[in-house]
């Protein structure tokens, strides 16, 4: 069998051989003192001038924010040590790589209310935390949720922080001068350039010879990992559509990492040409189904899947490609307590409030007109469609599969808080007081770029050892799409992670960690979900693929939407509700003609074309809708609007969550095993 053969590659030998080859090439470049290289590796950054940071009253205390920004989830950047980020210099230069200016220019968030992690281990942007990898007890850089799910809008020198919003960084993108390319070039040059090495080693290890030696080994290993990644799930040919700023092909990348890299099946690498925007997360705990295509329902399984995509180290198979035995299978840095803490914190997050003093006063009469239009033209899709808590049917034995899943784990299902329906079948009653049902809108109806939804449906992966009962000759029946494949894996992996942290059904531990007593399910639909739009004004660019820069453009006819525009600068346009789109230095040029980038669909037009979802909106109607969207649901404006059906004070809060708060204790500022409370200069 091909897949068996490909599994037997020897990782270690390959890594060293290839690592050395890269080093040789780079050494050549260093020795020739290449000014072309210097130019190539000059940071491709935007330039931003901020004098004040403002938070938008989203219901978080400072501690909540701090927890979200720094709680680790167990992901790694090919094993990069936490301290290295700030000790590295730019390639072919002695300047600090992770300076505030560079980090900000790459689209990270480093500033504000002293929350940037500036301490003895240097500056780290929001969402770059750390965890200890027990393999060698080193502190590794951890890419947390906040890295992708925190936004910032700039307006005339003020930065408006949008917690749980959309990031604009381009950490997935490997073009000249981009963060990841610069970082890796710096690491390689540090190994081959003795002077650069000496400065780096002085910073990290001082003059302790053994520590310097270890550092060299660790850095060499990192470069080997990077090389391996670039030959596996990071192969450039898998990414024909540049992700650019503010996007990543999350599901495509998860598929490649999990089924290609972690299961070590070469044939499972698929083209990932459907980059998507980082979505916003307030109220997300209210949703019945999440992800753009709405393919899953449970927070923990979703998060563990995501952490695998963001390269959390995990042991799944042996050298022969067989699943590792109990005890070894699932050994990982994935931190389910960290994730539970973040989920608990996210449940307190509210949508951002439009700051009139900065972005301009609301025209109430116009907003009232918009309120009517929204109820007429938008609410039947965007809701929120309030629903009673669900009663989820359970698999109660090995043969049971009530919701027709690709795979169930009945022991996991039954480890939640189980009750029985009228027909005496086991169910889990969702703990939410009420929920939001999000409708799936078929891609043929909504007409937006279908690539993400089609890839999700059509890309198939050989599930290999996850389906041991399927004989090797029967390759076709081992093929699964990303959702079903993740289900096969996560049904095994999540319970192992729970066990390793002592989370059991006692005291409803599993029910709680499962995300409000929800059993893990997958649905496969070629559709995008229509989500509620509270606070959407603060989350440009728009649509799942970020192809429409502003809400004004989204409400305009297709021919009026920009075809090419710049993404990366955070200066906000409060008239159109989007970022400014000029092509400035550091910006990524978004080209809507590329696969995955289409800006079609979701159209308000009187011509009968694909993706028409409403009548043409006049200029005045568009402006009225925009005015309403600025304050939709914001309780401060409810009276002025003559009541607001979307008032977000009416939705019940999340049930109290003692276990979640407990999970946070390890991560609270001042707790022993996270960053010591740092000095906070402003
Ligand atoms: C590397 C960037 C990145 C990181 C890190 C990350 N996410 Fe996401 N997240 C995304 C992207 C991109 C999507 C959209 C993927 C899709 O649906 O195709 C997403 C989707 C989601 C969704 C579904 C949103 C919706 O509209 O349905 C939730 C919830 C979520 N993420 C929560 C988290 C949490 C919690 C963490 C940390 C435990 C996390 N994410 C870490 C990039 C990231
Ligand atoms: C037929 C159902 C439907 C109607 C009607 C509809 N929408 Fe949407 N809307 C969607 C879907 C589905 C998406 C997600 C599409 C995608 O990402 O490809 C969406 C996306 C959006 C987004 C982008 C959200 C984001 O995070 O990027 C905005 C803003 C929006 N709609 C506003 C409106 C407004 C305003 C109206 C009324 C004038 C409206 N929509 C009417 C289904 C609908």
Helix/strand layout:
Layout: H1 2-7, H2 11-31, H3 35-40, E1 52-55, H4 62-70, H5 82-87, H6 100-105, E2 128-133, E3 138-143, H7 145-148, E4 150-155, E5 158-163, H8 179-192, H9 194-205, H10 209-231, E6 247-248, H11 250-262, E7 276-277, H12 299-309, H13 336-346, H14 356-359, H15 364-377, H16 379-382, E8 385-387, E9 391-393, H17 410-413, E10 418-420, E11 426-429, E12 435-437, E13 440-442, H18 443-446, H19 451-458, E14 461-462, E15 479-480, H20 482-500, H21 509-513, E16 527-529, H22 551-555, E17 564-567, E18 572-573, E19 578-579, E20 588-591, E21 603-604, E22 612-614, H23 619-631, H24 658-665
Parallel strand pairs: 1-5, 21-22
Antiparallel strand pairs: 2-3, 4-5, 6-7, 8-12, 9-11, 10-11, 13-16, 14-15, 17-20, 18-19
Helix pairs in contact: 2-8, 2-10, 4-13, 8-9, 8-10, 9-10, 11-12, 12-13, 12-20, 13-24, 15-23
Bound molecules: heme C (2 copies).
């Amino acid at each position: 069998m091909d897949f068996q053969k490909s599994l037997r590659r020897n990782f270690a030998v390959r890594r060293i051989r290839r690592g050395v080859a890269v080093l040789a090439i780079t050494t050549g470049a260093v020795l020739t003192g290449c000014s072309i290289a210097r130019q190539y590796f000059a940071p491709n950054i935007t330039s931003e001038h901020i004098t004040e940071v403002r938070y938008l009253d989203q219901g978080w205390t400072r501690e909540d924010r701090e927890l979200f920004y720094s709680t680790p989830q167990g992901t790694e950047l090919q094993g990069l040590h936490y301290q290295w980020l700030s000790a590295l210099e730019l390639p072919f230069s002695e300047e600090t790589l992770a300076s505030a200016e560079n980090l900000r220019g790459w689209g990270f968030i480093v500033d504000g209310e002293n929350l940037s992690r500036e301490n003895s281990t240097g500056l780290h942007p929001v969402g770059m935390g750390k965890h200890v990898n027990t393999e060698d007890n080193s502190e590794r850089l951890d890419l947390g949720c906040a890295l992708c799910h925190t936004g910032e809008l700039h307006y005339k020198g003020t930065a408006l922080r949008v917690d749980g919003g959309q990031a604009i960084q381009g950490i997935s993108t490997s073009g000249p001068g981009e963060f990841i390319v610069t970082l890796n070039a710096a690491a390689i040059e540090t190994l081959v350039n003795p002077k650069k090495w000496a400065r780096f080693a002085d910073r990290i290890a001082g003059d302790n010879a053994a520590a310097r030696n270890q550092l060299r080994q660790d850095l060499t290993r990192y470069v080997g990992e990077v090389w391996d990644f670039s030959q596996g799930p990071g192969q450039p040919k898998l990414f024909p559509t540049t992700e650019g700023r503010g996007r990543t092909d999350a599901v495509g990348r998860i598929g490649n990492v999990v089924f290609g890299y972690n299961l070590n099946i070469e044939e499972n690498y698929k083209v990932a040409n459907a980059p998507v925007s980082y979505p916003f997360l307030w109220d997300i705990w209210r949703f019945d189904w999440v992800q753009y295509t709405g393919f899953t329902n449970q927070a923990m399984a979703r998060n563990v899947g995501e952490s695998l995509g963001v390269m959390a180290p995990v042991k799944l198979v042996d050298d022969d490609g067989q699943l590792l035995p109990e005890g070894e299978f699932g050994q990982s840095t994935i931190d389910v307590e960290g994730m539970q803490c973040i989920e608990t914190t996210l449940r307190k997050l509210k949508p951002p409030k439009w700051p009139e003093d900065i972005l301009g006063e609301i025209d109430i009469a116009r907003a009232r007109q918009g309120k009517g239009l929204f109820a007429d033209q938008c609410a039947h899709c965007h809701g929120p469609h309030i629903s009673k808590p669900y009663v989820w049917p359970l698999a109660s034995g090995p043969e049971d599969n009530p919701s027709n899943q690709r795979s169930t784990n009945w022991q996991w299902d039954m480890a939640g808080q189980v009750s029985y329906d009228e027909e005496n079948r086991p169910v889990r009653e969702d703990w939410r007081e009420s929920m939001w049902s999000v409708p799936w809108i078929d891609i043929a109806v909504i007409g937006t770029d279908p690539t993400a939804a089609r890839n999700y449906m059509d890309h198939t992966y050989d599930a290999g050892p996850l389906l041991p009962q399927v004989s090797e000759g029967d390759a076709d029946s081992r093929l699964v799409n990303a959702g079903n494949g993740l289900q096969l894996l996560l049904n095994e992996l999540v319970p192992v992670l729970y066990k390793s942290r002592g989370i059991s059904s006692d005291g409803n531990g599993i029910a709680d960690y499962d995300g409000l007593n929800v059993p893990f399910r997958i649905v496969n639909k070629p559709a995008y979900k229509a989500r509620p739009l509270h606070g959407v004004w603060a989350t440009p660019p728009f649509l799942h693929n970020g192809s429409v820069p502003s809400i004004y453009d989204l409400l305009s006819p297709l021919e009026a939407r920009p075809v090419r525009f710049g993404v990366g600068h955070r200066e906000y346009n409060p008239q159109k509700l989007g970022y400014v789109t000029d092509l400035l230095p550091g910006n990524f040029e978004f080209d809507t003609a590329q696969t995955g980038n289409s800006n079609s669909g979701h159209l308000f037009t009187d011509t009968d074309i694909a993706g028409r979802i409403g009548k043409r909106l006049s200029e005045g109607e568009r402006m009225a809708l925009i005015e309403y969207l600025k304050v939709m649901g914001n309780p401060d404006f409810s009276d002025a609007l003559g009541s607001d059906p979307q008032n977000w004070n009416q939705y019940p809060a999340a049930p109290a969550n003692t276990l979640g708060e407990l999970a946070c204790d390890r991560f609270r500022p001042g707790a022993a095993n996270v960053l010591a409370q740092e000095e906070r200069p402003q």
